[in-house]
Structure formats: structure tokens, C-alpha cells
């Protein structure tokens, strides 16, 4: 079962999280009941979690040979087990106990973004500024832990809050038009939009985006014209970041180039796999052995099918398409580097 908001509000050091964050945390967490005589600590991932005793009595065996009885609901139980003292070697349930484990990385990301959001709200006085402390859909816990945001330096997070612009949009608004120059990166705070492309003289929808998804980055990374049109399907709001700010705060820390010799070594050692983002006709001509072929214009649709346990080295002819694809992959939590300079034959991208 999920913990209640009231239970989370009594726990340290997380009780300072915003109400919205606590709601998200409750939905993402589960309590476990352990019977009398069991050792709950043996089956909980203490190195990766904060572990709390919510109810019942638990006897802890400490490294110095002493014993300590922890009672759910007491002041000491409001802190993670082993947080303020040496981690116990084992535990024994004196009664049936209710335990809660909270992922450490998730909490760290939540607390960092919450604290920086509060600072941003107090430092920006404009009535048009986004209410960062409310943590809209653009920065949900899922988005923060499964996308590029989880790997950003805290200083960059603070700057993002300062430089994002909030843009209200209506259903039917064309936000980005195919063929136009790239100028902004967009993050969906609320609402949904459709990506479409001109194919053989016919406009076709290729993807639908929801809160937390981003668009516009391909043209910015590859320094080329917009490759698709983005139209709002519903009313909503977008967060917009100008190209120079995007390059400084997102592209620079996330886009990881790799030279051919180093890439060959990683693939040969089984540590990475080639990902060819050219058209199939190009791939057939000179695709690298063992490479997966997913053209850049299909990369978004392929996200659910890509094995996230693998590292990918993305390549094209020159590096332009592969750098854009690698950023898209990294932004969506997939470990990707791009082959700097590409295959190096011809002048095509």
C-alpha cells in the first residue's frame, strides 16, 4: 500500500518537500508489512533507500554489539534507520512492523529541485513568471528521474528557472513550423501537441506529446531548419528556452562526443552498441556491423522499443543527425554518445 501524506509529513529530512512533491512521492512509494520475528532490514535495499519504521517495534543489532529498540511513531523513528547513527547489522521485529523504503536518488532529485524552485519563486517578482514551487507537469517526479534533468548540475537547474519563459497556448496554435529556423527549445507544462511532417506532399502526424515532453531540440543541436511542425491539440502552457540558453544549460552538459577509435573499442568490448540514424538506403550501403538502424525522423517513436540497459554510440555521415539523435536519447534517459565527425565520407548530413 502507499503511505499517506500525513505519514510522509512526519518523516525527516523529507517533510520539507512541497505538498505537490509529497503527493507524487506517496504515489511512487510502497509500505511493506513484516511479521513478528522477521528481519525486515535483510530484504530492504538499505544502500539505495532511506528505510523508515512507520509502525510496530523493531530491535536493532548495532555494530558495537549493543541492541536498540525502535518504536514506530517516536521521534527517533521519524528519521531513516541508521541515518543519525551507525547502520545496524540486523533487525528483528518484536511485533508486526510496517516499513517504508524511499529511493535515495529520487529523494535527492526531489529535494534539490524543490529547494531551487523555492529560491526561484522568491527571487523572480514578475507576475508572468511560472510558479516553480507548484512543480507543474513539466517537472514531475517521473520527468525528473527518467529524463536529462536528473543529470543536470544544480547550478544549471537554478539558471533554467531563471531563463525559462512561460507561454500560454490554445488548441490549434502552430508553435513550430517545418522549414523555419530553430530559435527556441520547448517543454510542455500542460496540454498536448501533435508533431507532423510533410511526406510525399501529404502532411502526416508522427507523434503526440504530453506534459513533461520536449520538442524543438533537433534543429538547435544540428543547427538546421525545423524538421517538423508542432501544433497544439489542446489548450495548455509551454516553457520556452532561447537557443543560446539551451546550448549553455542543456546541450553542453548532455551531448557527449566520442572519437572513432574510442567508439570502436567500446563496441568491440561489448560495452556499447552502434546506432545508425541515417535512412535505411544509406544504412544498407555502409552500415557498421551489428548496428541498429533507426532514422532520426523515427527516433521519438522508437523510444519505447530501445533497450535502456545498453549504451549506444550514435552515428550518421557527418555527425549532424547523430548529435541531434544522441541529445534526444539522452534527454529521455537513454545512455548515448555521438560519433564526432560521423563516418567521414561525403558531404551529406
UniProtKB/TrEMBL annotation:
MF terms in GO: cAMP binding; cAMP-dependent protein kinase inhibitor activity; protein kinase A catalytic subunit binding
One GO CC annotation: cAMP-dependent protein kinase complex
Every Rhodanese domain range: 268-348
Segments forming domain Cyclic nucleotide-binding: 148-250
SMART domains membership: cNMP, RHOD
InterPro entries: cAMP-dep_PK_reg_su-like, cNMP-bd_CS, cNMP-bd_dom, cNMP-bd_dom_sf, Rhodanese-like_dom, Rhodanese-like_dom_sf, RmlC-like_jellyroll
CDD domains reported for this sequence: CAP_ED
One Pfam family of this chain: cNMP_binding
Transmembrane annotation, as ranges: none
Protein name in the entry: Rhodanese
Species per Swiss-Prot/TrEMBL record: Azonexus hydrophilus
